[in-house]
Amino acid sequence: MKRYFDLNYNGEPYDAVTRRKNQDLFYILGAGKVAPPPKAGQANKQPAARPAPKMSSGVTSSGYGGGAKVVSSNASSAADKAQITKLEGQLAELKLQNDTLDKERDFYFGKLRDIEMLLQ
């Protein structure tokens, strides 16, 4: 699917009115009819005149599964370590809250099951 898009997309925004040659969709299809699917190879015979515009976020990647390149310096290293320590503390706290909530959920689910058994 991506290969088809890359081969046929010319980089311009889609314009439905121009695509159907300024005709109303009702008159193109007729009342109660469905458009036939395009035949293979006839969807867009125009070659891709120019490639799709490249979108960059400023983050570089080192190939497949590479992830962002990390540039480190001594000045930011201490600040980064402090932030990592702070985030690890928050993570531990959230894990503890999650475990507590899981136990509470299981407790009340058990009580609900007991009530259902009494009602039967």
TrEMBL record:
Keywords attached to this entry: Coiled coil, Cytoplasm, Cytoskeleton, Microtubule
Domain of life from the UniProt record: Eukaryota
Record's keyword annotation contains Cytoplasm: yes
Region ranges (Disordered): 35-65
Pfam families: EB1
GO cellular component: microtubule
Major location category of this protein: cytoplasm
Name of this chain's protein: EB1 C-terminal domain-containing protein
Annotated GO MF terms: microtubule binding
InterPro entries found in the cross-reference section: EB1_C, EB1_C_sf, MAPRE
SUPFAM superfamilies in UniProt: EB1 dimerisation domain-like
Locations listed in the record: Cytoplasm, Cytoskeleton
Keyword Metal-binding: no
